[in-house]
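User: Hi! I'm working on a homework problem where we have to compare a predicted structure to a textbook description. Could you give me the structure for the chain below?
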Amino acid sequence: MVPLRDNNPTSITPYVTYAIVGANIFIFLYQITLSPQELQAFFNRAAVVPCQLSTTCPVPVDQGIPEWLTLVTSQFLHGGLLHLGGNMLFLWVFGNNIEDRLGHLKFFIFYISCGVLAALAQWFFSQNSGTPMVGASGAIAGIMGAYILRFPKAQVLTLVPLGFFITTFRLPAYFFLGFWFIQQAFYGLVSLPARTNVGMEGGGVAYWAHAGGFVFGAILGPMLGLMRRD
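Assistant: Happy to help. Predicted structure tokens:
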């Protein structure tokens, strides 16, 4: 299911959401100028590499920046155009309303914090992995966790493939986002019997970062004033 838009108007211009989308696109354009070897080196420096964070890598990498800082920088890296496009679409649909509720500064703090905590959730299950973890998915999952609390009945225009046919439905946010969270948690649990390497053995998806980000977003949002009355 692909969200196209919601029926949830905002009262502000979501400058932080726009800036985050722009930063992700700009960095991706830089990525595609790199050779495969340069891109791998760039990911080793700026992405979260769990064994580097755990200091358990067989061969330590001199990456030039503190490993803890990659919990932030990795949120602006993506593994491909579809990865970038999917993340930015979800951010575009749901981020503006959370920014509207929290305000610009609190929203930025919320976004970065959800991304950091989501990455740590995935790291917990893959502490010895040497595979770089990239993407804004954890931070955006936090936005979704906050959205389902604050706007559970908002209608989301959703693109749904049905076999050879593609149609659209208007789904309540609690159904769309709740189904997404259950799916991520289920895939994360299924992957546990196998060696977990930032979700990469399961097709390159960090399911625990998604599920963890969703939960942390639902916790941090109210703490920052998400549920306040106008």
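For your comparison, note the following. The CA atoms of residues 175 and 191 lie 24 Å apart. Residues 192-203 have pLDDT under 50 and may be disordered. Good luck with the assignment!
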